Amino acid sequence: MKSKYNFQVKYNPAIIIEEGSLLRLPEIINSGAYFPLPRRFILVVDRAFHDANGDLLGKFVKDIKSEALIWPFESGENAKSLPGLMKILDFCSKNSIKRDDAIGVIGGGTLCDMIAFAASVYLRGIHMINIPTTLISCVDPVFGKAAINHGGVKNLIGSYFVPDLTLIDVSFLKKDSRRYYVTGIAEVIKSAFIDSKRSVDELEADMAGLVGMDNGIIDKYVKLGIKVKTSCVLGDELGLRGKHFRLSLGHNLADILEMADLPDRLTHGESVALGMIFAAYVNGRINPGSSHLLSRTKALISAAGLPTRPNSNAIQPDKILDLLRKSKKNYDKGISLVVLNDYGKVDNANNVDPEIVKEGIGYLINE
Ligand SMILES: NC(=O)c1ccc[n+]([C@@H]2O[C@H](COP(=O)([O-])OP(=O)(O)OC[C@H]3O[C@@H](n4cnc5c(N)ncnc54)[C@H](O)[C@@H]3O)[C@@H](O)[C@H]2O)c1
Asked: What is the pTM of this model?
């Protein structure tokens, strides 16, 4: 039997990206191709997905050769918490889940992150299948990092964990809310800029189809996101100052905005979009050679229907400055920001002048 330990991350994610693959889930598990057939299989399912897909889940229970336990679960940033984690661990314990058993998750990024963390710590690691169902969690799925929020800080507690299988079937993506769908496009835009000018050019041409929820185009950009994620994580699995940091483009500010107590809370992708504009503005001031990227970043974000300004005037530049200084992504005393010097050229700007940072926040609020 394959064993998993947190301190030995083997970054070799198995992944299926194929329309219709979710219908074959029992067959995939029964085949034992990814891990030996478990005695028990817990499937934690986002409640909204659960309520909309009773037939699919009923068929899963009928066709899988393991004893299956389906558990509808509330998702969201508040659920991705220590109490949420404890519920999962208690459920595993009460159902006598052993190391050769397995857990699966169907849902958005919050549930996938939390279940991956639970799978990494329960009995020091059990088998897991990750089935993301929001665009954002497909473009940037949980291979590598698994986490929960705590004390108002995003992903404060977590581990490094690679699920045995990630299965992406874009025909089951959440498309009932334009706002939640579009939020995923922010990570697509980020991936294209990290990748190359060619990817940005193609994305510009494909944007209408992506916004129009065309499955073929979604599939293309899910693959791009995973390619970019893999290229950044390989060789720097633990995120220790290798290429991993590139994935944080836009996230220095996004982590703060997403947790901010605003009247209309920003989604992860909306926060990343604003964080990318902020980073492009600040870098344009530090490194004028990069200033051409600001207008293109903003244009793509706008074409996606994402906000280019925060929706609230409750954002205080001094408070944000302070939070950026204290950020868990800050390794030095001054403020560090992940920035883009050119297409495909991500860098860390260290000791950024606080006045330029404040100017960047002012630009974001007012322009
Ligand atoms: N681990 C990673 O690599 C990674 C990558 C990106 C984002 N994240 C994390 O993911 C979170 C954001 O994820 P999210 O935007 O998916 O949020 P989410 O998990 O809260 O899901 C958003 C909403 O979609 C609903 N939903 C999910 N799938 C559905 C479906 N198929 N049909 C109908 N409704 C459905 C949920 O009930 C929820 O209301 C953040 O916490 C972020 O840190 C993690």
From this structure: 0.89
